[in-house]
């Protein structure tokens, strides 16, 4: 899963306003949603435009909505 530099910076600057919503499509008719607060720990380097993350690891850290 690729996250843009701007998304990462926003999440670090306004952590109380940022929730990463992760939607996992299980088959044609079902899906699972997880919310992840404070998903990122540090700023990307200056020249980076996006960062690849392991979707499974992010989902494992997420919480059910509600």
Describe the structure.
By secondary structure, this protein is of the alpha+beta class. It has one domain. 24% of the residues lie in helices and 35% in strands. The protein has helices spanning 5-13, 55-61, and strands at residues 2-4, 19-27, 30-37, 50-52. The strands form 2 sheets. It has a two-stranded antiparallel sheet with strand order 1-4. A two-stranded antiparallel sheet has the order 2-3. β2 and β3 (30-37) form a beta hairpin. It is globular and about 40 Å long. The two termini are 24 Å apart. 8% of the residues are buried.
Any key phrases for this structure?
66 residues, alpha+beta, two-stranded antiparallel ribbon, two-stranded antiparallel sheet, 2 helices, 35% strand
Helix- and strand-based class? alpha+beta
Shape: globular
Widest beta sheet: strand line-up: 1-4
Which percent band covers the strand fraction? 25-35%
Please bin the fraction of helical residues: 10-25%
SSE order, as H and E? EHEEEH
Unreliably modeled segments: none
DSSP helical segment count:
2
Rg over C-alpha atoms, rounded to the nearest angstrom = 13 Å
In this structure, how is the largest beta sheet organized? 2 strands, antiparallel
Distance between the termini: 24 Å
Mean pLDDT, all residues: 96
When the domains are counted, the total is 1
Number of strands: 4
In short, what is this structure?
The chain is an alpha+beta fold.
What is the secondary structure topology, with strand pairs?
Elements: E1 2-4, H1 5-13, E2 19-27, E3 30-37, E4 50-52, H2 55-61
Antiparallel strand pairs: 1-4, 2-3
